[in-house]
Amino acid sequence: MRKLITGTTMALMMALTFPAAAQADTRKNQDEFYEQLDLLMRIFERVRSEYVDEVDDKEVIEAAIQGMLKSLDPHSTYLNPDIYQQVRVQMEGEYGGLGIEVQMDKGFVKVVSPIDDTPADKAGILGGDYITHIDGEAINGKTLTEAVKKMRGPVGAPIVVTVVREGEAMPFDIEIIREKIMVQSVRHRVEDETIGYIRVTTFNMQTGEGVEKAVRELRAKLGDQLDGVIIDLRNNPGGLLDEAIRVSDAFLDRGEIVSTRGRRRQNNNRWYATSGDMLDGIPIVVLTNAYSASASEIVAGALQDHRRAIVLGDKTFGKGTVQSEIRLGRTGDRAIRLTTARYYTPSGRSIQERGVEPDIEVLFPRPLGQRGNPRREADLQGHIENTQDNLDRAGEYDDMEETSAQLEETAGETVVDTETPTEQVDVQLRYAIKLLKDMSGLPKSQVAEVRQ
């Protein structure tokens, strides 16, 4: 009995000790937190009172906020009222400026891609270019918000950007005339008489409706002659998650489209396809390259995992994180864009840092003199690492070589792109057309086998 009483007493003492220890740790963490906040304010006061020139308090605080967010990952950022308004307009499909998607890299503005038929595109700006100066003023040391603000301006006003391009020995200037940008995010046409071609340049609020309209018009025009559809997501930097889900749903009849997982329960979600495939099983080829990012990768990954489409081209950018827009202030005129979750394809793949691997790799010929590989998410400083085991699209450790060989045999030709032709030919598009033409001559059962 004495041993039992002693044991019970010790258990009670330990149970009381653990909460006390936990409370002590909590108090210590709080003390350290407030000490760091106090340090920040003391440094801010020293800057205000002792810096060689008088500083703008608002600018210094915004820079501190921006620095804090950028220390997390390359995609978290602060949107002041000016930039927030511009971002909202851009997501709605209309904004003023150059028509260029950018991010900060190595202290300079890196071009993700120019938007088709905008001033930047017409002036010759390319994905992968670095902008080092705007109107002769160096960008190095500025935040992305500041750089974007300098690129915005009155419609009709010229701007000179200094560009560093891989393969060019020296930086060079490009003059661009600012315009009101009306983003037509979806275009379509008929290729080789029986192939539908849908180009998606970005995912704004009009994209899902635009893709659905394009499919209806292609089917109305070609009817039973429609042999297949190409969805071109090359150089598409992404955009709204909801629109990526809607585009995927247009071609899927059932199953999961994408899931997100974060620290908070509200960021853990799954989206599923609704009944009905707008193409009724007509073959699809999705074109991707190194600048297909974010929402583009959601669509490519969903259609690939469901064996609904063949992904052809180059490995995608590898941005597998979701940014939530959190409004701030009494009037909600500013916000932070904060990374709150990772997204996963239907088979459970996280493509963060890794991208979507194409079923058939067809590399576009590099411009003469260009060396090295395109920069992707994995090359960005401070990117979030992917710790997931390297699974294939079926969620297993299977070898995909047999499937790839079958696809290339079905296409009836091999990929040769080691030399740049005299006239630049879109080899990826030509390959996709040839593949769909070959598949159109197969029985439906064999077409299904090709997509397995």
If you had to describe this structure to a student in words, what would you say it looks like?
The protein is α+β, with helices and mostly antiparallel strands and 452 residues long. It folds into two domains: 123 residues, PDZ domain (Pdz3 Domain), CATH 2.30.42; 265 residues, 2-enoyl-CoA Hydratase, Chain A, domain 1, CATH 3.90.226. It is built from eleven helices and 19 strands. Strands 3, 4, 5, 6, 7 and 8 form a six-stranded antiparallel β-sheet that branches.
Brief overview, please?
The protein has 452 residues and is of the alpha+beta class. It folds into two domains: 59-92 and 94-182, Pdz3 Domain (Roll); 186-450, 2-enoyl-CoA Hydratase, Chain A, domain 1 (Alpha-Beta Complex), CATH 3.90.226.10.
- Portion of residues in helices? 25-40%
Number of domains in the coordinates? Answer: 2
Oligomer: single chain
From the alpha carbons, calculate the radius of gyration and give it in angstroms. Answer: 26 Å
SS-based class: alpha+beta
What is the beta-strand fraction? 15-25%
Total strand segments: 19
Which stretches are poorly predicted, pLDDT < 50 over at least 5 residues? 393-422
SSE succession? HHEHEEEHEEHEEEEEHEHEEEHEEEEHHH
Looking at CATH, the homologous superfamily of the largest domain is 2-enoyl-CoA Hydratase, Chain A, domain 1
- By CATH, the topology of the largest domain is 2-enoyl-CoA Hydratase, Chain A, domain 1
Largest sheet, if any? 6 strands, antiparallel
Distance between the termini: 70 Å
Number of helices: 11
CATH class of the largest domain: Alpha Beta
Shape: globular
In round numbers, the mean pLDDT is 82
In CATH terms, what is the architecture of the largest domain? Alpha-Beta Complex
